[in-house]
Amino acid sequence: MRRARPASRREPTIALINIVFLMLVFFMVAGTLTQPLDRDLRLVDTAELDGRAPVDGLVLHADGRMSHGGAALASAADYLAALESDAPGTVRVIPDRALPAGVLVAVARELRAGGAERVLIVTERALP
């Protein structure tokens, strides 16, 4: 009589593969919920500020160009006209790090003159 071999025990790799696949799908979906900013835009560094996620705002490039939602704008008044509300309360400006401060101040003044109650500047939070 032959002796029965003990059955080899398999590792549960299928369950591990399923979990990794579900995590991959989750991160793919979670990473595409917001519209990405322009690739050549580098945000200003700041430290110790209450940060918020960059929302739909006026993007100011280093060369003075303006864009909103990927579309080029000629002036800050065009951005205010593109907003859905009749009287914009808070307006967010997303400047490039290399943008001259004078241009940023001029655009902020133009937004205030156009009816914006508050002009917030979106920056990158610096790590300690």
UniProtKB/TrEMBL annotation:
<dbReference type="InterPro" id="IPR003400">
    <property type="entry name" value="ExbD"/>
</dbReference>
<protein>
    <submittedName>
        <fullName>Biopolymer transporter ExbD</fullName>
    </submittedName>
</protein>
<comment type="similarity">
    <text>Belongs to the ExbD/TolR family.</text>
</comment>
<keyword id="KW-1133">Transmembrane helix</keyword>
<dbReference type="GO" id="GO:0015031">
    <property type="term" value="P:protein transport"/>
</dbReference>
<dbReference type="GO" id="GO:0022857">
    <property type="term" value="F:transmembrane transporter activity"/>
</dbReference>
<keyword id="KW-1003">Cell membrane</keyword>
<dbReference type="GO" id="GO:0005886">
    <property type="term" value="C:plasma membrane"/>
</dbReference>
<keyword id="KW-0472">Membrane</keyword>
<keyword id="KW-0653">Protein transport</keyword>
<keyword id="KW-0813">Transport</keyword>
<keyword id="KW-0812">Transmembrane</keyword>
<dbReference type="Pfam" id="PF02472">
    <property type="entry name" value="ExbD"/>
</dbReference>
<feature type="transmembrane region" description="Helical">
    <location>
        <begin position="12"/>
        <end position="33"/>
    </location>
</feature>
